[in-house]
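Mods, move this if it's the wrong board.
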Amino acid sequence: MSNRLEKEDSPYLQQHKENPVDWYPWSDEAFKKAQNENKAIFISIGYSTCHWCHVMGERVFENQECADILNESFVCIKVDREERPDIDIHYQEVHELLNRRAGGWPTSIFCTPQNKPFFARTYIAPESTQDSIEGMGFIDLTKLISQKIQQNDERLFKNADEIESFLNHYEHPKEATVLKEDFYKDFLHQVKNNYDTKFGGFSIAPKFPQVNTLNTLLVIDKLYDDKSARAMIKNTLKNMIVGGLWDEKDGGFCRYAMDEQWREPHHEKMLYDNALLCELYAKAYLFYKDEFYLDIAKKTADFCLKQMSEKNLFYSARDADKKNLFDKKIQTSWSSMMINALFTLGSIDSKYNKMAIDSLASLLKTMYINDKLYHTTLIHKTPKIEAFLEDYAYLSKALITAYNFTAKDIYLIHAQKFVNTALERFYKLGKWNFSDGEFETIAEISDNTYTSSVAIIVESLFSLGLLLEDEKYTHFAFKTLEYNSYELGRRGVIYPKMIEQVLRYVKGNRVIKTSKDNLNKNIYKLASLKYPFISFKSDITDAKFMICGEKSCFANTKDIDNIDKLIFNSF
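Not the wrong board. Structure tokens:
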């Protein structure tokens, strides 16, 4: 007999509808029941293509003994982290606070009947392995928690109150420091300390691609002709392919490797990884002109277009265990990443430009309804969950890229509208919230699973300020960097995209103005320009290229090959 999850759209929640556990979706009904019946709350967070989520589902949630304990003594809530990233962000913070280390999925949270968390783990096996609390299995752990709740254990409830007070306390960053070009030197030094000189990458096993670090190294190489940055980029881009992170048989990039040599990939494939890596390899080709990079970028795009899309909309993931080959959930933020990659690739091969235009149109039609942007839905379903900061940020970036490569004003108009809404909803005095609804969470500036939404919205603000010649957008971008400047100067290695934006602020933006026809004819060469902070605008009618800074234009040329020299000589 199915439980309450049967009525939910989420593929992840649907996977658990036949569990013997009496699951609730995230709802007021569940929290009221816990309080009225004085039952502990168990919150389980995961996603449909997660290997260890499957393992816990099979070994714990389909285990009748585990289910009986949960049904008798707990109110159990299932959350899809991809559907509700705001909830996930909050409970990842809970896990880190309680365990002094980052969490992961599945996330297992235990709360008092008043919904105050007091215990957090990731995967929990059904049986205990040792006497300590860390080795306690799900059966023994839930029995112990149930007993302590029934006894109104004073220590447990006191700990829960203390944890809640920590979570509700937000410390503003220390005093601002001057945004300096030298920030990149500290970043580079820290990256070198983490770099695997033999196999590439920036960690021991498990080893993730860390696209944001590579992107910022690419910016550094473009600006400073840095041989060490170039070596780290090229070695990593090569070894991810020959090692096996790229799936030669089925196509696409796997999420991470379980070994240092990239030879044991974890076969789960996420849209965001493939989108960001597709764009990275395309940008590496545009700068280094190595056909190997272009081949990988095209193959990655083709994999996503053929195996992770339907009706010009992109699916969020493919399953690691191949039990459910497609999570047909559409997400605005992740789809926008892929569309952005297609526009970048389209500057090299025009067929991808057409695909990007079609995908962007389908995404807007599906997720932007009655002047309201939404976060996620299934194909053929009506979206219900409103957009978060990441959706506004990544969609705005994709729209600005679309404008740069097509010169269609409608894209810039949409981007301005979404950035304005993001400022109204999520920005306050340099700080950004990730969500502002029933569950308000602060947006991280660090690049974790993928690029920080704060860094992406800063990038869009700088671009809008330049293209619209409106200083208010540049002001908000600067205030965000200034607010976080102490951290950026101290630990840049965990904020690579923000470090890139610091360099953009310090070095300055450039815009190339030309005719629409001239832009279309020369888009490949324009996309190949060395200076990393360039936008394009087709608001003049002749065949010249006018090169401008943020407040004035300073050079004209008909020779596209002379543009980089004119830009670098302008500093």
